């Protein structure tokens, strides 16, 4: 089988070193293409400002290149000093001084210049956070159910999430040589159970990954049964913990084969929700996890990266084959036990912790932590973290938990001082997600984060028009079909189709267990408004007062919904045609 270009680059990279160090030392403002592919496994993407491309080309100048840096933060958990270090690094090195919470409970910096890249990464590592393995063809950041209540059952997940993250961290010492000036590290440095600034003495012996690592990225999530705040069905592998009569963790339900990415007009690519393979004892966690990742390593498509995720292996070989492979490789029987119903609680707002302190779930629009003139959000969070030495948990819905507030009233005063007032957040806003998209993402076909507030305003108005605000759907939008903001499990979603249009998806569910389907393709803004108005009108007229939008779409059937929305699309096209004719008369 012919390998893709990136497979060859990885094999010839000498443990992900390639030419990174040499290019880092030169005075160019960008890295070469092959080096960019290797940088991803170090937690770095090279990007450019697409807003300025045309003007730069007109002037005969090079593109405005910069780097995006992403942290590897298991479970999204940070100490006060770690968060404040990220805040300070953003102030010094990020183009707009902002931080961004990702849908995988990590932090990103955008707009870092190449000449400042090494210093930025060094300062992140100085507070015992790495960027290694945050991107690239490896197991990426392991996500975990949020825990503002300090629920002892959820707290038991902490050590297992760290154990999985450590187990699948690449063994190459390239990261430490290049970014931290360490030629050989003989011992691991472990803080709170997490490998940080060290590797074992046989660091380059990639006995598990091999010299080509995985065919594609691999995502893991862990939660407790009944709580799907991590969107477990969208992951390559997920674990839902169970507990004995004494509330001690005794095992996990195993989920495999989820994934959101697809490519427009490529039928061989598709989103998929994970299957539950069964239950196993907690003592077999690492063996089972390694078996699943190894199946992806051994059977994943290394010729076509758009078809390389584990979901395609399972779709083609079958779930029974997958179960047999996992059981044989891990020497673990997967039991067919009933899975409890999912009912995920909201983490937003105030929560009283068992120690008498408070946790506060703060909503972030598209995960962006930035100071604006009237709402100095970034300064507010930093002030609270510094004042109360707060722990942090980043959320898979791009929000943030502030843990350990001693004085609720004083904290509220600090938030209000910086213009942060949560009463303005609607039910639609609370769970809406968007990817970064333009201007920095090279894959974006249309806008994401920058237009999310506009679409939230439009959809909120339509929901209010039909008295549906209390049943606001889970809404997500992305600039392309790769699915970074998990659009295909949302109740409604807009997916970038071209520079001016989106595809409208619908029929997922609030708990993320169902897959949405394409309803109408190639809609511009006016057509989107018309289509949603029609959809919401039908929902209001043909459902009871508790039926959610996703359930309504699936009950009526995708074909019937499509027919009604295509009529609405044609109506909008006819309006445009009449307007053009009048202008030409």
TrEMBL record:
<dbReference type="Pfam" id="PF01077">
    <property type="entry name" value="NIR_SIR"/>
</dbReference>
<dbReference type="GO" id="GO:0046872">
    <property type="term" value="F:metal ion binding"/>
</dbReference>
<dbReference type="InterPro" id="IPR006066">
    <property type="entry name" value="NO2/SO3_Rdtase_FeS/sirohaem_BS"/>
</dbReference>
<keyword id="KW-0004">4Fe-4S</keyword>
<dbReference type="InterPro" id="IPR045854">
    <property type="entry name" value="NO2/SO3_Rdtase_4Fe4S_sf"/>
</dbReference>
<protein>
    <submittedName>
        <fullName>NADPH-dependent assimilatory sulfite reductase hemoprotein subunit</fullName>
    </submittedName>
</protein>
<keyword id="KW-0411">Iron-sulfur</keyword>
<dbReference type="GO" id="GO:0016002">
    <property type="term" value="F:sulfite reductase activity"/>
</dbReference>
<feature type="domain" description="Nitrite/sulphite reductase 4Fe-4S">
    <location>
        <begin position="170"/>
        <end position="332"/>
    </location>
</feature>
<dbReference type="GO" id="GO:0009337">
    <property type="term" value="C:sulfite reductase complex (NADPH)"/>
</dbReference>
<feature type="domain" description="Nitrite/Sulfite reductase ferredoxin-like">
    <location>
        <begin position="66"/>
        <end position="126"/>
    </location>
</feature>
<keyword id="KW-0349">Heme</keyword>
<dbReference type="InterPro" id="IPR006067">
    <property type="entry name" value="NO2/SO3_Rdtase_4Fe4S_dom"/>
</dbReference>
<dbReference type="GO" id="GO:0050311">
    <property type="term" value="F:sulfite reductase (ferredoxin) activity"/>
</dbReference>
<dbReference type="GO" id="GO:0020037">
    <property type="term" value="F:heme binding"/>
</dbReference>
<comment type="similarity">
    <text>Belongs to the nitrite and sulfite reductase 4Fe-4S domain family.</text>
</comment>
<feature type="domain" description="Nitrite/sulphite reductase 4Fe-4S">
    <location>
        <begin position="477"/>
        <end position="566"/>
    </location>
</feature>
<feature type="domain" description="Nitrite/Sulfite reductase ferredoxin-like">
    <location>
        <begin position="353"/>
        <end position="410"/>
    </location>
</feature>
<dbReference type="GO" id="GO:0000103">
    <property type="term" value="P:sulfate assimilation"/>
</dbReference>
<dbReference type="GO" id="GO:0051539">
    <property type="term" value="F:4 iron, 4 sulfur cluster binding"/>
</dbReference>
<dbReference type="InterPro" id="IPR005117">
    <property type="entry name" value="NiRdtase/SiRdtase_haem-b_fer"/>
</dbReference>
<keyword id="KW-0560">Oxidoreductase</keyword>
<keyword id="KW-0479">Metal-binding</keyword>
<dbReference type="InterPro" id="IPR045169">
    <property type="entry name" value="NO2/SO3_Rdtase_4Fe4S_prot"/>
</dbReference>
<dbReference type="InterPro" id="IPR036136">
    <property type="entry name" value="Nit/Sulf_reduc_fer-like_dom_sf"/>
</dbReference>
<dbReference type="Pfam" id="PF03460">
    <property type="entry name" value="NIR_SIR_ferr"/>
</dbReference>
<keyword id="KW-0408">Iron</keyword>
